[in-house]
């Protein structure tokens, strides 16, 4: 392979990584506006057919359960009362057609005293590229309330990270 061909192949690989990261970022960041607007089918289609969404309040597997969560009375009450899910930018690690990402999310709700943060969560995503593009395989959310599993979930994304734990 010539020097030009090697450079072109390296550039194509870098471009593919950037495009993959952009597609994954768009998928993750699309969840909040879709769930807050009640678009149940589009929320469910962010996951693979049998994908898992494991929130410490509820465990869902498959698109029917994901769609059902958005249509549920509880979720519809959040929407009609005023709520906003906000996702921070994800840190993405690519491995071919598999990827993981971590980020934070906030659920902000409207109360008689104004807007307040109901939940702040650590999020760990496992994603896979298929014929329809990138989809979530598994998303785990844990509330950041001092329990050790929440920062452990974030640290698990960084294989060489060692968490300091107070004595």
Automatic annotation (TrEMBL):
InterPro entries: NTF2-like_dom_sf, SnoaL-like. It comes from the Bacteria. Gene3D superfamilies: 3.10.450.50. Residues 16-139 form the SnoaL-like domain. This is Nuclear transport factor 2 family protein. It comes from Actinocorallia libanotica.
